C-alpha cells in the first residue's frame, strides 16, 4: 500500500527539502518505489532530482498545491509507488491537501525561538486535520541543543506527536545535492550522518508499518555516487 509523507513547516530554511530528498534517495537504494512531489515554487527538490536523473529508479514531478489533491489521489491509487514524498512551501494557508491526504507529516524544527513559534502554528493545523505527525529536531549543533529542543517540542505538542532522534547540522547534506546526490549516497553506513538518516527512516517505517526490503547495498558501495 502506498504511503504518503508530507514535509511541512511554515518557516523557510527548516530543512524540509533536504530531508525529503535524503530519505527518498535512501529508500530508492532500499528498493522502495519512490515518487517525489515538489509543490514549492522555489523548486529546489526538482532541481536536485534534475541533476540526479539516471541514478537509481526514483521519480519526481513538480505541481502546484492547487492541483495536488487530484494528482496525488491518482498517483496513490495507481499502486506504482511504495512511498510518495511531498515537499511543501511555507504558506500554511495553502497546505490543506498536503496535510489531510498524507499518512504522516514530518516537521523539521531547528532550535530557535522563531522556529518554535512557526512549529506551533503548523502543528495546530495538523492536529485539526487529525493527521499523525513526526517532529524532527534538525540541524542540531550540540548535544545540549538536542536535549533542549526535545524538551521544548515535547512541551509544545503536549504529547500529541512523536519526536525523532536529532539530525545534525552537517554541511555535507547541502554539498552533495549539487551533484544530485544525498549524504546516504556518498557516506559509509557507519558515519554519524548516515546513522542519523537511517534512524529517521526506520522511525518513519515503524510508524507507517512499512515492510523493509533488503537493499542491493547501501552508501557509496551502491554505485550511485559513481554513476
Give your account of this protein's structure.
- The protein is built from 9 helices and 7 strands, in the order E-H-E-H-E-H-E-H-E-H-E-H-E-H-H-H.
- By secondary structure, it is α/β, with parallel strands linked by helices.
- The longest helix is centred in the middle third of the chain and has 17 residues.
- The radius of gyration is 16 Å and the shape is globular.
- It starts with a strand and ends in a 19-residue tail after the last helix.
- The C terminus is likely disordered.
Question: What does the secondary structure layout of this molecule look like, with pairings?
Answer:
Blueprint: E1 3-7, H1 16-29, E2 34-38, H2 44-52, E3 59-62, H3 68-78, E4 83-87, H4 96-100, E5 104-109, H5 113-129, E6 133-137, H6 143-157, E7 162-163, H7 172-175, H8 183-186, H9 192-208
Parallel strand pairs: 1-4, 1-5, 2-3, 2-4, 5-6, 6-7
Q: Give the number of DSSP strands.
A: 7
Which geometry do the CA atoms define? globular
How far the N terminus sits from the C terminus, by CA atoms, comes to 30 Å
Largest sheet: 7 strands, parallel
What would CATH call the class? Alpha Beta
